[in-house]
Design brief:
flat; binds zinc ion; mainly alpha; 74 residues; 2 helices
Length: 74
């Protein structure tokens, strides 16, 4: 007899854009430039060389996902 603890459910695999988003969000949380805020708590949106490639990757993956949805709808 098997129990749920012996057979943990598989984690739902992330799509490429979700993975890219997680990497981007993860960077923004840890990075001092990306998480810098002013006295009112607004994000200063400082330029960050580390964020740029992650953001580009996310945008590209998102566009691909959107294009795939577009194709499957047609
Ligand atoms: Zn950053």
């Amino acid at each position: 007899m098997s129990s749920i603890t012996e057979n943990p459910p598989q984690a739902i695999p992330l799509t490429p854009w979700q993975e890219a988003f997680v990497r981007l969000a993860d960077h923004c949380i840890r990075c001092p430039e990306c998480s810098a805020v002013d006295a009112k708590g607004w994000n200063l949106n400082l330029p960050c060389a580390g964020r740029d490639p992650l953001q580009a990757e996310y945008r590209q993956a998102w566009r691909q996902a959107a294009a795939t949805r577009e194709r499957s709808r047609a």
